[in-house]
Amino acid sequence: MSDSTESLEKLIENNFDKLNKLEIWIAAQKHIPKNIRKLYFIIKSIWITFHNFLARIVLIQYIKFCDYDLEETKKLIDGNVKFRIKNKYLFTNRDIDSEDFRKLITSIHFARFPKLSKEGYAIESARVVNQNASNFNMKDALKLAIISHDTHALIGSNNKGIIQIYDASEFTFKHFIKVVSNIQAAIHYTQYGSGLTYVQPKQVHFLSCSTFISKIISMLKPFFSKEIMESIHCHSSSFETLHKFIDKECLPIEFGGNNGTLEEHMKNTLWNLQNNRDYINNDENFFLLDK
């Protein structure tokens, strides 16, 4: 058992009473489908099945993110559930082995890095692979990021925050057109990350920041929270300014670091996504069944 899993087990054990109270509250919420309420929280059972353990991990992420304040946790869960139901297209059809995602990862390389930043933040990156935008799909790219966040919540804590790096060195006008034509999806993703999830962006870095990227940021600016707006940093082709925020020991070779390669991290990330594929792809686990 990994250290992160043991740590999560300990959190669950130490907050059993809070989990139990949260279960009672959730059971009374009419907008959460009844069959999911029954399935999702069998807190009082003596025997913990693997499925129920995963459900508790998700719950404890909410509780920890809200500094163990149950009332704040309820508000966050309520907002998260309502947002997921209202914008199902970002949260359903999440099979990482589907043809759509297989095409997507030929267009972008998405990776979670193994080492945390000095502040304890997780670090992830999305990199446009080449100038051919034929397999680039904006909605699927946003969905992939959410899949990663939900997956890594199961295998380790996201709650100190996350650093996101977007490498736009191969980002072209064709990519730009695809982003702009799906700008509403980008707005929804921005809104979701601005207070409706337990994954809090702490820094957002754009590498090789072009005019196209600047225009996209301008379009999304009205929807950024103040905290996210202040966390956005645009960099030229040099990595020197990036290293002022993130130590080289945390970054792969491609970003001027010395912690492995992007390809290695991408393979590990995809392995984690595929290893949790059944749980992530089951809409029942994320409050998405109709009543």
UniProtKB/TrEMBL annotation:
CDD domains xref list: SEC14 (cd00170)
One Pfam family linked to the record: CRAL_TRIO
Gene3D superfamilies in the cross-refs: CRAL-TRIO lipid binding domain
GO molecular function, one term: phosphatidylinositol bisphosphate binding
Start and end residues of each CRAL-TRIO domain: 97-263
InterPro entries, per the entry: CRAL-TRIO_dom, CRAL-TRIO_dom_sf, CRAL/TRIO_N_dom_sf
GO CC terms: membrane
The protein's name: CRAL-TRIO domain-containing protein
Source organism of the structure: Chironomus riparius
